[in-house]
Structure formats: structure tokens, C-alpha cells
Request: fold
Amino acid sequence: MIDIRFLRENPEVVKQNIRNKFQDRKLPLVDEVIDLDAQARATQQEADTLRSNRNKISKEIGALMKQGKKEEAMALKEQVARDAEHLKELEEQEADLQERVKKIMMTIPNIIDPSVPIGKDDSENVEVERFGEPVTPDFEIPYHTEIMEKFNGIDLDAARKVAGNGFYYLQGDIARLHSAVTAYARDFMIDKGFTYCIPPFMIRSNVVTGVMSFDEMDAMMYKIEGEDLYLIGTSEHSMIGRFIDEMIPEEELPKTMTSYSPCFRKEKGAHGIEERGVYRIHQFEKQEMIVVCKPEESPMWFEKLWQYTVELFRSMDIPVRTLECCSGDLADLKVKSIDVEAWSPRQQKYFEVGSCSNLGDAQARRLRIRVKGEDGSKYFAHTLNNTVVAPPRMLIAFLENNLNADGTVNIPKALQPYMGGKTKIE
Reply:
């Protein structure tokens, strides 16, 4: 959510930003919110004047009563009563106007970074850099579930009977590999100086609307029936929510955290052959990295975060590339985002395994996460998040890139301690 003062002073900048995100349907909202904001401020000013007059008149009434001028005092009391009734109306009107302003402001997209390429959707994202040489083996690589099934490592049919499509049972060495990758990612981030956290896996609605847009909320979140609770789609949600309504001393920044959680997502609109198996599912586990920092430091942290993911994947012999998300592919709260994609030897293309995002002060503004500077100044923090690793997509990339012609799977040196010293899965 952008600052209403910025919108008020720069309406054309906000409108152009909306055009750059190809959301022209939202253009009328800018003028509408400016009008509502003006009404709200005028109403507030009138209410403030009545409150000020009430205090002044109250003193006059006291003075008149002391002088024995009861009739004049009673007349002023009647005026105070009328003013009180009008003040109540104004306060209700002001609250309604402010709520309408807030609702619209939460649908107007954040101002994107000038470096973001302009494009309508993910088909216009821009490749930035490749890391590692994509290898195409001289033998056929099966679909990832077929590889897992050869190790008796997955049972989709049983999961379908128990929970429906979009779920799975992992078992044996494949389940162990899943846990090993997550544990390795955890320790990898701890070694980078991040604090390890396990957050709540459910959050209240005010946190949900603080960390994501309404469109994302509708497409992703599962609501707990009868309670003001939602299952998290990523640990970023509860990790950022942790700081709601906090005033953080500047000297405590940056806060760098890595969090583990299961994630639950509706995955509306998932379709196509690559949606089979464990590519796009309703429940998975993830290691995340989150940073809360000063505004001037967020570009630096953005670069660091995606580089950590690249380094992690390369340590497991998986070629990756980075992709700059274009304007139309950015969620409304994001200022800038880079996807990390892993090489799929079977598909002969890259696919997304993580996403790094700088949200500027959008989440902090919604959740009222402020910083108190050493000079006494107060300002909103910047928040960033990035995927360290998200099995099972990581498993797909891992199995395809480490598969041998004889059907065995190599275990890279970095992961061997987490697999009991195994060098191969056989």
C-alpha cells in the first residue's frame, strides 16, 4: 500500500504505474480515492473545530454560572448538545470515509522499481544470468514421479484416496532426501548469519491482508471455517506478521531470519502436463529467508538474497538461471522480483524453484511496522523475502540433474552428511 500523501501529490505517477502493470481498470480508483480523501480530511477538520469549540464553550459556561447568568449558560449548554449530536454524525462519516479510502488504497498497486521491465505477464520476464552448464544426458530421463516410484519413494494413489488431488505420500530414501534438503538449507542460511525460526502455521485475517493483495489472498489462502484463522501459504506471512504494530529501534536492524514451515495453497487455475506429480500441489514444505531493514539497505539485501539461492542450488550440482519479473507479473505489493529457475534435463528448459521479492514499505505500512531512528525520527521498515528451497520442486530438479544411466542418483558432497554419508541412492 502506497502513502496516501504520495498519491495525493503525484496522481499521474500512480496512474502511469497502474498502466505499466496493465491494470487499466484501476485507473478511476485514483481520482475516486483523492475525492474520498478530501472529504475525509474536510470532515475531520470540521469535527476538530467542533471539539475545540466544545472545550472553549465549556469554559464559558463555567464562567457564566459563577456570574449567576444561568439563562445564558443554559443556552450554551443547548448549543453544546446540538454540537455533540453533529459531532457524532461527523465521526461516523469520517470513519466510513477513511475505511473506503483504505479499501481502495489496498487495491492500488505499489510503485515498481524503475529497473523493472515492462511486460504484460510472465511470458515477458527477462533472463538475467545463468549459473552452471545445462547438461543433456545421452539417456532418457523419466518423469519425476517415475524416478521416485522406482525407489518406492512416492504414493500418489493412496494420497488421492485420503486427501484428493494435489497431495502425496513420500517414503523411504525419497522422503529422507526431502528432509535432508530442508535441513541442509536451514544450516546453509544459519551459516549466513540468519536466525532460524519456526513460526505459527495459521494467521489472523488482519495479518493476511497486511502481507498480501486481495487477489493473492483469494487465489491462495485456505480459511479455517468458523474461526478468524487462515493456513499460511508461506512462512513469510507469519514471519512478517510477527512485527505487527511494533516500533523497532533502528540499531536492531536488519533482522535476518530463515524460517521453516509447511505451506498450504489452493493453486487456483493449475493445469497442464507439468501439473501432474508433485510440481504444483496443495501442501508442501519450505525454507524461507526474510529480511526487515532500513529503506536504503533493501536494494543491497535484494541482491544478497537471490544470490544465496543460486549458491545453494549450485552446491547441489543443479544449473540455474535468474529471471527478472516484468511489471505485469509482479504482485501488487512488490517493488521488484527475481525468480530463480532450475534446469530440467527432461524438459530441456528451466522451471521456477524460488522467488526473491522486495516489497518496499508496503507490508510495513499495512501492518504498521515502524522504525525509530537514533535521531528520534520514525519511518516504515522495508521487508524482503526469498525462497531458500521448496521441496518437492527442488526434488524434481535434484533427481533429474543427478540421475545416472543405471537409475541411481548421485548425492552431492554438501548433502551427504544429511543422508547418513550416502554417496548414491540405489
